[in-house]
Amino acid sequence: MHIPGSDLDMRLVGYFTVVAEHANFSRAATALHVAQPSLSRQIQRLEEHLGVRLFDRTPQGSRLTAAGRAFLPQAVALLQAAHQAELAARDGATPREFTIGYVEDLVITHAVRRLRHQHPTARVRTRHLEWNDAHALTDRRVDALVARAPLPFPADRLRLTELWTEPRVLVVSTDHRLAGMESVTVEDLGEEALPQCPSAVPEWSDFARLEPRPDGVPARSAPIDYESFEDKLDLVAEERTVLILAAGDRRPQLRPGLTTVPIEGIDPVRVVLATRPAEAHPLVDDFVDAWRPGL
């Protein structure tokens, strides 16, 4: 049984729409990265298949014939339908839900929007989590987690994919002795007290407190009389402690009386995507690609 239009080459249809857009074979060939004689032959093949002439060549370029003008909107619709059919086929082979967790002040909107555009039939959801939610992945409440590394809980059974890095800054009161400096080093911190979190893994605690120090002297610990990040900011404002955060963390900037100072000579913070390696979700790779600039 012959299906009308079933032997229409969609590649040729795509070439036709580009030539129609540029109204010039030379410019269209440049846009398509093909040789102009080759493009002319492809359009001729399409005209022979349809049995009509689609373009009239003029000294100024190429002009659509009446048949070409009638074919153009249908050609665009064909290409769009083919693209949607391709997306539907891919999404039909993947789970229809993908839940992305994120913590603290991290913003994932742009990458999520790209992923939803790429997979319009999939249900892509987001969920804001507590910074130390160790079971969100293992309990399958999320399929992926965007967080800053090192994670405050064991991550040996997770796959971590780096998305970007951020330098670190010192958060102090605007009245602090180090406020207003262009930058500081570990040595400048001297006897400054830093908060600690007994429930976090040692790797996280050491990273947050810049330990071990070059002189081997452990950092002083601030009193553990806080329950939230906002409580820590209160301690900083009172000059009872200082904080070391990623430069991309905007929360201290929203509070009056605090300022940040770049810290030189230390490793940056890695923002990572954590996933379950044993059962990687089919949309994970596309979500990682969505962070690439220029897409």
From TrEMBL:
Keyword Transcription regulation included in the entry's annotation: yes
Domain HTH lysR-type stretches: 8-65
Cited Pfam families: HTH_1 (PF00126), LysR_substrate (PF03466)
Origin superkingdom: Bacteria
Keyword check for DNA-binding: yes
Alphabetical UniProt keywords: DNA-binding, Transcription, Transcription regulation
Family: Belongs to the LysR transcriptional regulatory family.
Name by which UniProt lists this protein: LysR substrate-binding domain-containing protein
